[in-house]
Amino acid sequence: MSIETILSELRGIKGYKSSGLMDFTGELLISDSADESTDLELASATFNDIFRGAHEASEKVGLEATTEMILNTPNGIIIILCSGVDSEPHLHLISVLEKDGNQALAKMTMKKLMPKFVTELS
Amino acid sequence: MLDTKVQQKPLSTEEFLSIINIHVPLEKNGALLTGYCPLCYDEEESFLVYPSKQHWHCYACQQEGDIYHFIEKTEHLSSSNAIKFIEVFIQEQPHLSANIPHKEPPVPTELARQNKDMDKVIENPTLKHLLSKFHNCHGCQGIALIDGSNDKIIGSSINDFTHLDMQSLHLFFSKTLNNSMKILGDFSQDNKDTLFRMEFSFQGKRKKLIWIPELSAYHYTILLLLDEDFLEKILLMKLKQYFNNLQAPAAS
Questions:
Q1: pLDDT in tens, B29-46
Q2: Residues B193, A73: C-beta atoms closer than 8 Å
Q3: Residue A63 belongs to a domain with what CATH number?
Q4: Between residues 61 and 100 of chain A, which touch chain B (CB distance below 8 Å)?
Q5: Which of B59, A1, B57, A84 has the alpha carbon at shortest distance from B67?
Q6: CATH number for B29
Q7: Residue A117 near chain B (CB below 8 Å)
Q8: pLDDT, tens digit, 9 for 90 and up, residues B140-189
Q9: Are the C-beta atoms of residues B228 and B250 closer than 8 Å to each other?
Protein backbone atom coordinates (compact mmCIF):
# COMPACT_ATOMS: atom_id res chain seq x y z
CA MET A 1 0.00 0.00 0.00
CA SER A 2 1.43 3.40 -0.93
CA ILE A 3 1.83 6.08 1.70
CA GLU A 4 -0.57 8.30 -0.28
CA THR A 5 -3.26 5.61 0.03
CA ILE A 6 -2.60 5.28 3.76
CA LEU A 7 -2.90 9.03 4.25
CA SER A 8 -6.17 9.17 2.30
CA GLU A 9 -7.82 7.09 5.06
CA LEU A 10 -8.16 10.32 7.01
CA ARG A 11 -10.38 11.83 4.33
CA GLY A 12 -13.60 10.27 5.61
CA ILE A 13 -13.40 11.98 8.98
CA LYS A 14 -15.98 14.65 9.64
CA GLY A 15 -14.51 18.13 9.31
CA TYR A 16 -11.32 16.92 7.60
CA LYS A 17 -9.40 19.71 5.88
CA SER A 18 -5.91 18.43 5.21
CA SER A 19 -3.14 16.19 6.46
CA GLY A 20 0.55 15.67 5.89
CA LEU A 21 3.40 13.37 6.77
CA MET A 22 6.68 15.02 7.73
CA ASP A 23 10.06 13.98 8.89
CA PHE A 24 10.78 15.19 12.41
CA THR A 25 12.40 18.40 11.13
CA GLY A 26 9.11 19.46 9.57
CA GLU A 27 9.87 18.72 5.94
CA LEU A 28 6.65 17.63 4.30
CA LEU A 29 6.98 14.21 2.64
CA ILE A 30 3.41 13.86 1.36
CA SER A 31 0.23 15.79 1.87
CA ASP A 32 -3.46 15.53 1.19
CA SER A 33 -5.98 18.33 1.18
CA ALA A 34 -9.74 18.53 0.89
CA ASP A 35 -9.65 22.28 1.34
CA GLU A 36 -7.41 24.51 -0.75
CA SER A 37 -7.70 27.38 1.73
CA THR A 38 -5.24 25.71 4.11
CA ASP A 39 -1.57 26.29 3.37
CA LEU A 40 -0.48 22.93 4.71
CA GLU A 41 3.19 23.53 4.00
CA LEU A 42 3.17 26.60 6.22
CA ALA A 43 0.91 24.99 8.81
CA SER A 44 3.01 21.84 9.06
CA ALA A 45 6.29 23.74 9.32
CA THR A 46 4.88 26.08 11.95
CA PHE A 47 3.18 23.46 14.06
CA ASN A 48 6.10 21.10 13.79
CA ASP A 49 8.21 23.84 15.36
CA ILE A 50 5.64 24.23 18.13
CA PHE A 51 5.67 20.50 18.68
CA ARG A 52 9.45 20.38 18.94
CA GLY A 53 9.38 23.45 21.19
CA ALA A 54 6.78 21.76 23.42
CA HIS A 55 8.99 18.72 23.57
CA GLU A 56 11.98 20.80 24.71
CA ALA A 57 9.90 22.83 27.18
CA SER A 58 8.44 19.69 28.73
CA GLU A 59 11.84 17.98 28.95
CA LYS A 60 13.19 21.00 30.83
CA VAL A 61 10.66 20.45 33.61
CA GLY A 62 11.25 16.72 33.78
CA LEU A 63 8.48 15.43 31.56
CA GLU A 64 9.28 12.73 29.06
CA ALA A 65 8.79 12.61 25.31
CA THR A 66 5.76 14.43 23.97
CA THR A 67 3.96 12.06 21.63
CA GLU A 68 1.00 14.06 20.53
CA MET A 69 -0.23 17.60 20.55
CA ILE A 70 -3.67 18.99 19.85
CA LEU A 71 -4.40 22.63 19.36
CA ASN A 72 -7.99 23.83 19.39
CA THR A 73 -8.50 27.31 18.02
CA PRO A 74 -11.71 29.21 17.26
CA ASN A 75 -11.41 28.26 13.60
CA GLY A 76 -9.93 24.82 13.55
CA ILE A 77 -8.19 21.89 15.19
CA ILE A 78 -4.61 20.86 14.54
CA ILE A 79 -3.37 17.45 15.64
CA ILE A 80 0.25 16.34 15.49
CA LEU A 81 1.38 12.83 16.28
CA CYS A 82 4.95 11.58 16.62
CA SER A 83 6.07 8.07 15.67
CA GLY A 84 8.41 8.13 18.69
CA VAL A 85 11.88 9.56 19.06
CA ASP A 86 13.41 6.09 18.79
CA SER A 87 11.50 5.03 15.68
CA GLU A 88 13.32 4.81 12.39
CA PRO A 89 12.28 6.78 10.44
CA HIS A 90 11.21 9.42 12.97
CA LEU A 91 7.99 10.84 11.53
CA HIS A 92 5.43 13.45 12.43
CA LEU A 93 1.86 13.26 11.14
CA ILE A 94 -0.32 16.40 11.07
CA SER A 95 -4.06 16.74 10.47
CA VAL A 96 -6.08 19.91 10.21
CA LEU A 97 -9.81 19.74 10.94
CA GLU A 98 -12.61 22.24 11.01
CA LYS A 99 -13.60 23.60 14.40
CA ASP A 100 -16.39 21.05 14.81
CA GLY A 101 -14.48 18.17 13.22
CA ASN A 102 -14.34 14.73 14.80
CA GLN A 103 -11.15 15.18 16.76
CA ALA A 104 -11.38 11.88 18.64
CA LEU A 105 -11.76 9.82 15.48
CA ALA A 106 -8.97 11.72 13.76
CA LYS A 107 -6.63 11.05 16.66
CA MET A 108 -7.49 7.35 16.74
CA THR A 109 -7.09 6.99 12.99
CA MET A 110 -3.75 8.80 13.06
CA LYS A 111 -2.50 6.47 15.80
CA LYS A 112 -3.58 3.50 13.68
CA LEU A 113 -1.91 4.85 10.53
CA MET A 114 1.42 5.85 12.04
CA PRO A 115 2.89 2.30 12.27
CA LYS A 116 1.90 1.73 8.64
CA PHE A 117 3.87 4.81 7.56
CA VAL A 118 6.90 3.71 9.57
CA THR A 119 6.72 0.23 8.00
CA GLU A 120 6.34 1.62 4.50
CA LEU A 121 9.23 4.04 4.86
CA SER A 122 11.69 1.89 6.78
CA MET B 1 -22.82 6.75 57.03
CA LEU B 2 -21.70 10.15 58.15
CA ASP B 3 -18.62 10.55 60.25
CA THR B 4 -19.83 11.36 63.74
CA LYS B 5 -16.71 13.42 64.45
CA VAL B 6 -17.81 16.03 61.96
CA GLN B 7 -21.28 17.37 62.58
CA GLN B 8 -23.69 18.56 59.91
CA LYS B 9 -24.86 22.10 60.51
CA PRO B 10 -28.29 23.37 59.52
CA LEU B 11 -28.09 25.68 56.53
CA SER B 12 -30.22 28.62 55.55
CA THR B 13 -32.15 28.38 52.30
CA GLU B 14 -29.77 30.92 50.75
CA GLU B 15 -26.75 28.86 51.72
CA PHE B 16 -28.37 25.67 50.47
CA LEU B 17 -29.17 27.21 47.07
CA SER B 18 -25.73 28.81 46.75
CA ILE B 19 -24.10 25.42 47.17
CA ILE B 20 -26.40 23.73 44.65
CA ASN B 21 -25.63 26.63 42.31
CA ILE B 22 -21.95 25.66 42.21
CA HIS B 23 -22.94 22.91 39.82
CA VAL B 24 -26.45 23.71 38.62
CA PRO B 25 -27.81 27.05 37.45
CA LEU B 26 -31.38 26.96 38.76
CA GLU B 27 -34.61 28.45 37.48
CA LYS B 28 -37.59 29.20 39.66
CA ASN B 29 -40.59 27.06 38.83
CA GLY B 30 -43.36 27.73 41.34
CA ALA B 31 -42.25 26.58 44.76
CA LEU B 32 -39.49 24.50 43.20
CA LEU B 33 -36.31 25.25 41.32
CA THR B 34 -35.24 23.26 38.29
CA GLY B 35 -32.04 22.72 36.35
CA TYR B 36 -29.94 20.22 34.43
CA CYS B 37 -28.70 17.31 36.51
CA PRO B 38 -24.93 17.51 37.13
CA LEU B 39 -24.81 13.77 37.82
CA CYS B 40 -26.45 12.24 34.76
CA TYR B 41 -26.23 15.22 32.35
CA ASP B 42 -29.77 14.60 31.19
CA GLU B 43 -30.81 16.85 28.33
CA GLU B 44 -34.07 17.77 30.06
CA GLU B 45 -34.37 19.89 33.19
CA SER B 46 -34.91 16.82 35.36
CA PHE B 47 -33.14 18.17 38.41
CA LEU B 48 -35.62 19.45 40.98
CA VAL B 49 -34.75 21.36 44.11
CA TYR B 50 -37.14 21.78 47.05
CA PRO B 51 -35.80 24.84 48.92
CA SER B 52 -38.19 24.49 51.86
CA LYS B 53 -37.13 20.88 52.51
CA GLN B 54 -33.52 21.48 51.39
CA HIS B 55 -33.85 18.40 49.24
CA TRP B 56 -33.01 17.61 45.60
CA HIS B 57 -34.20 14.90 43.23
CA CYS B 58 -33.33 14.01 39.64
CA TYR B 59 -36.15 12.34 37.74
CA ALA B 60 -33.76 11.09 35.06
CA CYS B 61 -31.24 9.18 37.19
CA GLN B 62 -33.49 8.84 40.24
CA GLN B 63 -30.83 10.13 42.59
CA GLU B 64 -31.85 12.34 45.48
CA GLY B 65 -30.75 13.57 48.84
CA ASP B 66 -29.80 16.51 50.97
CA ILE B 67 -27.03 19.04 50.37
CA TYR B 68 -24.38 16.76 51.87
CA HIS B 69 -25.30 13.92 49.49
CA PHE B 70 -25.20 16.42 46.65
CA ILE B 71 -21.63 17.50 47.45
CA GLU B 72 -20.53 13.91 48.07
CA LYS B 73 -21.71 12.93 44.59
CA THR B 74 -20.71 15.99 42.61
CA GLU B 75 -17.32 16.53 44.24
CA HIS B 76 -16.59 12.82 44.78
CA LEU B 77 -15.97 13.38 48.47
CA SER B 78 -16.47 11.27 51.56
CA SER B 79 -19.25 12.26 53.98
CA SER B 80 -16.88 14.00 56.37
CA ASN B 81 -15.09 15.84 53.58
CA ALA B 82 -18.43 16.93 52.12
CA ILE B 83 -19.27 18.53 55.47
CA LYS B 84 -15.89 20.27 55.55
CA PHE B 85 -16.33 21.39 51.95
CA ILE B 86 -19.66 23.02 52.77
CA GLU B 87 -18.27 24.70 55.90
CA VAL B 88 -15.35 26.13 53.94
CA PHE B 89 -17.57 27.23 51.08
CA ILE B 90 -19.94 29.12 53.36
CA GLN B 91 -17.10 30.77 55.26
CA GLU B 92 -15.64 31.93 51.95
CA GLN B 93 -18.83 33.71 50.92
CA PRO B 94 -18.97 36.92 53.01
CA HIS B 95 -22.68 37.49 52.38
CA LEU B 96 -23.45 33.94 53.49
CA SER B 97 -21.09 33.72 56.44
CA ALA B 98 -22.40 36.84 58.16
CA ASN B 99 -24.68 34.76 60.39
CA ILE B 100 -22.31 31.89 60.98
CA PRO B 101 -20.00 31.94 63.95
CA HIS B 102 -16.43 31.50 62.75
CA LYS B 103 -15.06 28.55 64.69
CA GLU B 104 -11.94 27.42 62.92
CA PRO B 105 -9.93 28.58 59.94
CA PRO B 106 -10.71 26.68 56.72
CA VAL B 107 -8.95 23.35 56.36
CA PRO B 108 -5.88 24.04 54.21
CA THR B 109 -5.40 21.90 51.14
CA GLU B 110 -2.60 19.37 51.14
CA LEU B 111 -0.62 21.45 48.75
CA ALA B 112 -1.08 24.56 50.81
CA ARG B 113 0.85 22.79 53.53
CA GLN B 114 3.53 21.84 51.06
CA ASN B 115 3.86 25.12 49.30
CA LYS B 116 4.22 28.42 51.09
CA ASP B 117 3.42 30.32 47.93
CA MET B 118 -0.13 29.06 48.22
CA ASP B 119 -0.68 31.46 51.12
CA LYS B 120 -1.38 34.19 48.62
CA VAL B 121 -4.00 32.02 46.98
CA ILE B 122 -5.53 30.94 50.26
CA GLU B 123 -6.34 34.58 50.99
CA ASN B 124 -8.41 34.66 47.85
CA PRO B 125 -11.51 32.53 48.50
CA THR B 126 -12.46 32.22 44.86
CA LEU B 127 -9.09 30.87 43.86
CA LYS B 128 -8.80 28.66 46.88
CA HIS B 129 -12.14 27.13 46.12
CA LEU B 130 -11.19 26.60 42.50
CA LEU B 131 -7.91 24.91 43.31
CA SER B 132 -9.40 22.62 45.93
CA LYS B 133 -12.40 21.85 43.74
CA PHE B 134 -10.45 20.66 40.74
CA HIS B 135 -7.55 19.17 42.63
CA ASN B 136 -10.02 16.76 44.22
CA CYS B 137 -11.33 15.44 40.89
CA HIS B 138 -10.29 11.85 40.32
CA GLY B 139 -7.69 11.74 37.54
CA CYS B 140 -6.90 15.43 37.79
CA GLN B 141 -3.31 15.61 38.97
CA GLY B 142 -3.37 19.30 39.50
CA ILE B 143 -4.13 22.76 38.29
CA ALA B 144 -2.08 25.93 37.95
CA LEU B 145 -3.65 29.34 37.72
CA ILE B 146 -1.75 32.07 35.92
CA ASP B 147 -2.38 35.78 35.69
CA GLY B 148 -2.33 36.25 31.93
CA SER B 149 -1.69 39.98 32.21
CA ASN B 150 1.78 39.50 33.73
CA ASP B 151 2.38 35.75 33.17
CA LYS B 152 2.83 35.16 36.90
CA ILE B 153 1.65 31.99 38.60
CA ILE B 154 -1.09 32.86 41.09
CA GLY B 155 -1.34 29.39 42.49
CA SER B 156 -0.52 25.84 41.60
CA SER B 157 -1.56 22.53 43.05
CA ILE B 158 0.42 20.31 40.72
CA ASN B 159 2.47 17.93 42.79
CA ASP B 160 6.05 17.24 41.71
CA PHE B 161 6.29 20.56 39.87
CA THR B 162 7.41 23.94 41.11
CA HIS B 163 5.81 27.24 40.22
CA LEU B 164 8.87 27.93 38.09
CA ASP B 165 8.24 24.76 36.06
CA MET B 166 4.66 25.79 35.48
CA GLN B 167 5.66 29.32 34.59
CA SER B 168 8.22 28.13 32.03
CA LEU B 169 5.62 25.86 30.42
CA HIS B 170 3.11 28.69 30.38
CA LEU B 171 5.61 31.10 28.83
CA PHE B 172 6.43 28.57 26.15
CA PHE B 173 2.77 28.02 25.27
CA SER B 174 1.95 31.67 25.42
CA LYS B 175 4.83 33.09 23.38
CA THR B 176 5.22 30.33 20.82
CA LEU B 177 1.55 29.99 20.16
CA ASN B 178 0.88 33.69 19.94
CA ASN B 179 3.70 34.09 17.43
CA SER B 180 2.47 31.13 15.41
CA MET B 181 -1.07 32.38 15.45
CA LYS B 182 0.10 35.59 13.86
CA ILE B 183 1.64 33.59 11.03
CA LEU B 184 -1.43 31.41 10.69
CA GLY B 185 -3.91 34.23 11.08
CA ASP B 186 -6.79 32.30 9.60
CA PHE B 187 -6.77 29.81 12.46
CA SER B 188 -7.38 32.29 15.20
CA GLN B 189 -8.00 35.97 15.60
CA ASP B 190 -7.61 35.88 19.35
CA ASN B 191 -7.16 33.46 22.20
CA LYS B 192 -10.87 32.94 22.77
CA ASP B 193 -11.69 29.23 22.66
CA THR B 194 -8.03 28.36 22.14
CA LEU B 195 -6.87 25.26 23.91
CA PHE B 196 -3.55 23.47 23.80
CA ARG B 197 -3.35 19.79 24.69
CA MET B 198 -0.19 17.75 24.92
CA GLU B 199 0.34 14.10 25.79
CA PHE B 200 3.57 12.78 27.26
CA SER B 201 5.01 10.23 29.64
CA PHE B 202 5.72 11.14 33.21
CA GLN B 203 7.18 8.68 35.70
CA GLY B 204 6.25 5.86 33.34
CA LYS B 205 2.61 6.88 33.01
CA ARG B 206 0.79 8.63 30.21
CA LYS B 207 -0.40 12.10 31.16
CA LYS B 208 -1.82 15.07 29.38
CA LEU B 209 -1.24 18.73 29.91
CA ILE B 210 -3.90 21.25 28.91
CA TRP B 211 -3.29 24.97 28.61
CA ILE B 212 -6.30 27.29 28.36
CA PRO B 213 -5.50 30.97 27.92
CA GLU B 214 -7.48 34.11 28.72
CA LEU B 215 -10.35 32.68 30.72
CA SER B 216 -12.70 35.38 31.97
CA ALA B 217 -12.29 39.10 32.18
CA TYR B 218 -9.47 38.55 34.67
CA HIS B 219 -7.29 37.08 31.90
CA TYR B 220 -6.70 33.95 33.93
CA THR B 221 -4.84 31.19 32.17
CA ILE B 222 -5.02 27.63 33.37
CA LEU B 223 -2.67 24.68 33.12
CA LEU B 224 -4.14 21.28 33.94
CA LEU B 225 -2.28 18.03 34.42
CA LEU B 226 -4.53 15.03 33.89
CA ASP B 227 -4.32 11.27 33.63
CA GLU B 228 -4.34 10.05 30.04
CA ASP B 229 -7.81 8.50 30.31
CA PHE B 230 -9.35 11.50 32.08
CA LEU B 231 -12.35 12.78 30.12
CA GLU B 232 -11.60 16.45 30.23
CA LYS B 233 -14.69 17.67 28.38
CA ILE B 234 -16.83 17.90 31.50
CA LEU B 235 -14.04 19.46 33.52
CA LEU B 236 -13.45 22.06 30.81
CA MET B 237 -17.16 22.83 30.67
CA LYS B 238 -17.22 23.31 34.43
CA LEU B 239 -14.12 25.48 34.31
CA LYS B 240 -15.54 27.72 31.62
CA GLN B 241 -18.82 27.96 33.51
CA TYR B 242 -16.93 28.78 36.69
CA PHE B 243 -14.96 31.57 35.08
CA ASN B 244 -17.93 32.93 33.16
CA ASN B 245 -19.70 33.36 36.47
CA LEU B 246 -16.87 35.42 37.92
CA GLN B 247 -17.61 39.09 37.91
CA ALA B 248 -15.34 41.29 35.85
CA PRO B 249 -12.66 43.12 37.84
CA ALA B 250 -13.38 46.72 38.69
CA ALA B 251 -11.86 49.15 36.22
CA SER B 252 -8.83 50.85 37.71
A1: 777 888 888 887 666 778
A2: yes
A3: 3.30.450.30
A4: 61-76, 78
A5: B57
A6: 3.90.580.10
A7: no
A8: 777 778 877 777 777 776 666 676 777 777 887 777 766 666 655 555 44
A9: no
